Amino acid sequence: MRHCINCCTHLLPNDLHRQCFRCRGPDHNNQKCPVCRGENKIPLYTDSKQMKWLAVLEVRTDHCESWNGFFCLRKGKLCSLMFGLIIMTLVMVSYILTGAKHGLLLIPSPFHYGAFASNPSLMDNESLSDMKDYYQPSKMNISYVRDYPSIKLIIDTITSKIEFITRQRPDLEELRKQEPHMFSVIPNKFLPNSKNPCWYEEYRGNTTTDPYATNSYALYSKRFQIIFDYLRKVFWNHLYHYKDKHYRLRCLPHFYIIGQPKCGTTDLYDRLRLHPDVRFSAIKEPHWWTRKRFGIIRLRDGFHDRYPVEDYLDLFDLAAHQIQSVLQSDAVKEHGKRNNIIIGEASASTMWDNNAWIFFYDNSTEGEPPFLIQDFIHAFQPNAKLIIMLRDPVERLYSDYLYFASANKSAEDFHEKVAESLQLFEGCVLDFSLRACVYNNTLNNAMPVRLQVGLYVVYLLDWLTVFNKDQILVLRLEDHASNMRYTMHMVFQFLDLGPLSEKQEALITKSPASNTRRPEDRSLGPMLPTTKAILRDFYRPFNTKLAQVLFDDAFLWKRT
């Protein structure tokens, strides 16, 4: 194989030399052409024979010159065009990906939230995680908008759809049909000589029977093993014997601390426990009314066996033993005195978490739950007392995010999650009622932050459809933090608790605050000012309605 130094740009066999463009021009003459006659022609061999160094240099020079040819020019243009298209594509992909991630795509969201889970085949054949994936929007459809004006348009749309409509209470017979076992266990009347709702229940086991062998709280959590081991040891000592039968005292809470999360409920619980007349469930937050009775331990894990009401009542056995000791005392038997010990329960999900209804109750045509937690509590305890602790919903949401987020926490990440959640909520209220969106499991699981928990007035109005206003005490965390003694006195008066000595009161009111923000979360600093402004706009109409319902402008949270 040879090279034509003067003209060829490719390796050509000798018999193809005549195809060379420069040697076969329009006026070409083989006899006159010095190249074709072999003059000044330096053959280069690419085999094992030695090549001439000057020839190599000449080949390289002519190689560059040959690109000026027609075919080489076309090839160069084509390569340049392809290279340009590749660079443009890479730039566009990089823009889309980084812009979506950092909130730089200033485009309106094309996503509108889909229908609710009312498909029977979907309900029967798919797990909870499948349901979430079914309704989860593609992240490419979510606009992570950072600028305030764009998100303000979303908030304006939500505000225009807000309508507070009074719900219809279900009648008692409908509730009985939904939970027949619960109604068969809990009586409709309680012991008259006890302030706390209690009753005697016949126990049919023997001395070798473990009364807590099937308790789901004990089976699913090792944390409670010590509590139930103690209850097993003292169980037989607290049975009431009458006419060759054994009876155990069963109790429900006298009051419930029903909400909200990250609003100081743990601190209130810890202080109330110090009152000599107050007892609590063995577990601070059983979450039985909202989750465990439906078999929900963690929503991401799907459903387990439903916790029966007996398992819930077992949690009050420690308090029931103390109440029984008072009932069996001479002061009560002979002098007609009354037991004044009361039991509390402090699941912060009770006020707002009705997400499981769609999996167990018949769906309504409006997408709203036909039964709520308060319907069942009121059916058994129409005189129950309810305590609600609230805080500025903007600060509550940020605290909630810092507490529950597992990694990559930052003010910027919180902003992005707020923007995404607002768009999801907007898509829902465009098609469904406010109540349907607030209580929708799929929407609430899809939102990266729990916006709905701060819509206090929506939940409060629904509780007021079944309970009287004087049965509900609503407190603000801001007031509790600034004047704890005053708020605790309000609680004592609301629960009709007896007077305390100065030492007891000091112990309750001067104890350090519970469940405060972790140091690593405090180091992240406050939320972005833009995020705060966005959330202020979102929660403003709900706070306004709350202040009207409670006749207290402090719930506008203007100064926080």
From TrEMBL:
Claim: Oxidoreductase is one of the keywords in the record: no
Query: Gene3D superfamilies this protein is in?
Result: P-loop containing nucleotide triphosphate hydrolases
Q: Which family does it belong to?
A: Belongs to the sulfotransferase 1 family.
GO MF annotations, alphabetized: N-acetylgalactosamine 4-sulfate 6-O-sulfotransferase activity
Q: What is this protein called?
A: Sulfotransferase
Top-rank taxon, per record: Eukaryota
UniProt-listed Enzyme Commission number(s): 2.8.2.-
Enumerate the SUPFAM superfamilies for this protein: P-loop containing nucleoside triphosphate hydrolases (SSF52540)
Q: Which InterPro entries match?
A: CS_Sulfotransferase, P-loop_NTPase, Sulfotransferase_dom
* Gene (UniProt): Chst15
Q: Which UniProt keywords apply?
A: Membrane, Transferase, Transmembrane, Transmembrane helix
Residue stretches making up the Sulfotransferase domain: 253-517
Q: Where would you find the membrane-spanning parts of this chain?
A: 78-97
For the protein in the UniProt heading, the enzyme class is transferase
What biological-process GO terms show up in the record?
hexose biosynthetic process
Q: Which organism is it from?
A: Nesospiza acunhae
